[in-house]
Write a structure and sequence with these properties.
The protein is of the alpha/beta class. It contains 5 helices and 8 strands, in the order αβββαααββββαβ.
Amino acid sequence: MSRILDRSNRHHRKAVQKLPLGVSSNFRYWGPDKTIYADHARGGRLWDIDGNEYIDYRMGYGPGILGYADPRVDEAARAGMEVGGVFALSTEREYEVAKRISKMVPAAELVRFSNSGTEAVMAALRLAKAHTGKDSHIIVEGGYHGVFDAVLWYADIEEWDEEEAPPIFADSEGVPALLKRLAYFTPLNDADYLEDLLKRHHKDIGAFLI
């Protein structure tokens, strides 16, 4: 099915003058003539500025579990604005949400909120390494763990040789090369490789990111 992206293409030509690649995240850039810009969404469907309709399986990369423009969520958001928005202080509601999370996830005895997924992974990785006293970590190849230096590494899984570890590359220029030695990689769904990796390097590994 063909799409018309004339308006998105025109907007992209403007956006690249003020935004790198014309977007606020590299993951939103699909090419100069394929990058789309959202106009509105409802339920599980999204429309771009050219009027093309999509089924959105990502739902904002995860948090939109009830779909877009759910009236219950919108009503709660409006109520939140009426009390003043976000404070640089804690509120009683934080405790209620933390209590609900602990009930749903019994292992979450204590809860700490973060502003983004990147910050959540940073804090979890730091906590794991503080507990274990070990500086290295394992990354499952192909996984996404945010945009901080410790996890901005990848291995070429297409050229994976199970006899030896694959070469590791930085996802971006500017990532300090000295951090590479802290990252170990394992392919997805290969328990034997992971077990061997842990046997060889368990004295250094303080966390496993999945």
